[in-house]
Amino acid sequence: MELINKNIENTKQDWNTLGSKYASDVNKMVAFGETNGWGNWKGEEPKDERDHLADMVYQLLKEANKNNTVAQFRTDFPPAHTPFVQFMKEKGQSVEQLHFIDHQKIVFLTGTAYQNRQAYLLKDGETLELDSSINAIGKSKQDHVFAIAANNTIVTTQGWEGEIIATFTLDKAKNIGITELIPFNDGLKVLLVSADGIYIISNDTENLIHPLPDPEDDEWEPYLDMENATLSNDNKYIVVGDQCYDHRILDQNGTEIGEIGPQSSYPDFCLFSKDDKQLITNSCHFYNGITIGVDTSSLKKLSIPAYDGSEDSITIDSEMRVYCGVSTSEFYILGDAFGYIRAVDTKGNCIWRYFLGSTITGITISEDEKTLWVGSASGMLHKLQLEKGLRDKHTIGTGNHYEEFRLILWKDEPIMKW
Question: How many C-beta atoms surround the C-beta of residue 388 within 10 A?
Fold first, then answer.
């Protein structure tokens, strides 16, 4: 027993010494690169030297969850991403479609559009498994309308588990994987995003709004890659895009009124500011990308050429391949392919960045904008208290945030908290 305790103590010491050094080295490198230009960095890229400790730490984490001693374990072993990549390759899964409900409660799903998904309710620190038939959940931009898709039916409600507003039985869009579901603020229509097309679903129609059919091809069928779409907060505008098409700006009925060409290679994300005064679009090339912003007062007949930019747009960010994001009253919080979340304002100033690891696949924020939940492809869901102060010396980034906990939602494993 004494030998076991000594091994644990040695592991704890090595974990903390090496972990804090790695975080410090990365932060110094990034600060240098951003200040002096990455071409002037001559040092080696920092390496996390804790892979050999991961097995023991993983077993101790399991024991802590069984014994209800996670709080002490978290103090002894601050979380890390890199040493656990070896487990994530086999056990990781996407955590996405995160939506804030109220207080400290959110809903989210594991799995991508064409996998067997599982929906969960997270309240404070407790996780409840929801009906296994649910394959997509969405929330309106305003007015707290939720949409739940299950068994080729979409139901919209006023609030979570509130009064039913509308029920839509899918026909054209049945049996397809739903990438994203966004109900309109009145709950009477739903924007359905999928690799098989982007639709406006209402009581009497399923209107395919993207891509546009080829009138000369009798066998034409919609197929998209990196499909993405958004609604303005007031629902006056719809924006759609994918790998092969520019971002198209549509009115609320789905009629095209403008377009924005990619400034990198492939259009893959779009979002309106919280006050609807700006629209941002991201296009990517491998793991990098460019995000531009346009004034929404000029959306009608807007035409921004690919790659050349325009006097009608400004650069918001020139690094991130953006997978998801939220708008706050002060800035956007965007999640990228490298595992960073970044706060960027409407003028393109980076307010802070914060590393979580893996591709960021889902984000939601509390109504008071103090609590942020972030999901990733690693199978992790992070709960952050913004600007509360750092919890340990292992944090990579400039965000002064306190990670309350992270859930580990790995395949064929019980849900664990760290």
Answer: 14
